[in-house]
Specification:
- This protein is mainly alpha-helical.
- Helices cover 84% and strands 0% of the residues.
- It has one domain.
- The chain contains two helices and no strands.
- The longest helix has 35 residues.
- The model has no long low-confidence stretch (mean pLDDT 94).
Length: 77
Amino acid sequence: MQPQKKFHLVFSLVMGAMMIFLMTLVITFVNVGLTDHFLALWMKAFGIAYVVGVPVIFFLAPVARKLTGHLLGVNPS
């Protein structure tokens, strides 16, 4: 695998983990509060969101970079 593609894959995995970890924590807390089964519900939400979110990040991050570059008039490298 080319270094740039490898970087993009690992970036998607790491960024997905960090973002989804925090988002599912907040949304689960807002929806159910700090209950006895909070951790199980949060981990279930995290697992589902990670499987969906990482491919979304992988495929949409380049689009977002290009769109941002276009909006700001810069060439993202």
